[in-house]
Amino acid sequence: LIVIGVLKVVTVMYSTYFFWRNKGVPYLPNSLSSFITSWKLFFGRLSFADHFKFLYDYFPNAKYVGMMDFGTPVVLLRDPELIKDVTVKDFEHFMDHRSFVDEDLEPLFGKNVFALRGDRWKEMRNTLSPSFTASKMKLMFDLISKCSEDFVNYLVDHPEICHEIEIKGVFRRYTTDVIATAAFGISVNSMKDRENEFYMRGVETTKFFGGFLSLVKMIFMRVFPKLSKWMDLTFFPSATAKFFKTVVAETIKVREEQNIVRPDMIHLLMQARDKKSASTHQMTLEDIVSQAFIFFLAGFDTASTLMCFVVHELAVNKDIQDRLRQEVQKYFAEGNGKISYDSLSQMSYMDMVISEALRKYPPSIFIDRLCTKRYELPPSQPGGKNVIVEPNNMLLLSVYGLHRDPQYFPNPDKFDPERFSEENKDNIVPYSYLPFGHGPRKCIGNRFALMETKILIAHLLQKFTLKTTEKTVEPVVFNTKEFSLQPVGGFWVSLEK
């Protein structure tokens, strides 16, 4: 196995060297240092964020860089204009994400709107889009606000846990409650019912996204899909798939029997299932379960992580926290102790703070696009040649690299909401800021994630002062065993009334 592994590595380096050199494209790994960096990532000595920042920074004057992903040519885009072309202008050439799971083997993940391709993706996107319009967000506002109020009031009533609190764990409980009510129509209070199955399944599911063995498993499933299928390898425990399938099936049954209509994702998917369509693929229960699951997974972990980084930066930067609290208190006073969807939408400094948190700590370190139609890229560097991207070649957009590039965001390690003020935001180079992606494949749930985050931050600042503790790590050091941005030691703050 060791010999096979070494031969594989040598083959990849050899093919990379000649494939990209012959095209006149700067390529990685092109040196011992870049090769060592890749192995540091694999063995957990370097975080994913730092690895992609290294790749992004290696050729600072190139529009893009060539790499190989287990023998598959990959182009890492660095130029915002090219990113605009790929994600918007010439989107029909790059409609899909690369699939790393067989939908028959893992329908819980493989059938969701993120993983689907081509016409099936278009159909599902069109089906789900009405769930996330501004009008639908307004209808869901009261449900989410109630979850936020209950959550913050629990903290107020239990000061013993607020002196020094690891907020990732408790924010996950809040996002569990939000997703349960907004997507499934089920009322859950995860602070009181601490081992409710929604929360426990979320914790169990996200274990996949951390650890060396998880990385090895993911790579194995990508490199050997047929063998993985033969071995019945899956990302998520079968009990998790069974739980979500049961919850969705029972929710649908109750709604049909009692003629319950709620303005949520499940209702729209039920309508799509019942509608006669010219499509060859008719909506099934598995399709509905898969959409509900990815919505839960994104809301449970990704949204809670954003909330944590916002609270961390507010605790570290007292002046920013004080200014945001003044804005929040103004709207609470105008609403007689309540905030509305409209008042939340008017909190301009809140928008600036959240936008800066998304810049400094983007939910996705990189974004991928799979070439579906032959495409010609301009030269990567002056004097170079145009490069043909063939179908099934992959493009990567280094979101973290762009967001930490001083060319686009001066002093990028500083948390500075003023970048997004009315006076300054027009200075941001278009397509250098990609917290949710761009174009038709942009994250469909971004409005929902922003709303649940803003509501929570508003209620927290109304009741508490956020402070650092001895366990707070600043500056943040990223955990090398996590795929997403997670700090070493967790998110520790003090909540003082």
TrEMBL record:
One of its GO terms (molecular function) is oxidoreductase activity, acting on paired donors, with incorporation or reduction of molecular oxygen. Heme binds at residue 443. Its cofactor is heme. It comes from the Eukaryota. It holds the Pfam family p450. The keyword Membrane applies. GO terms for cellular component: endoplasmic reticulum membrane. This is Cytochrome P450. It comes from Solenopsis invicta (Red imported fire ant).
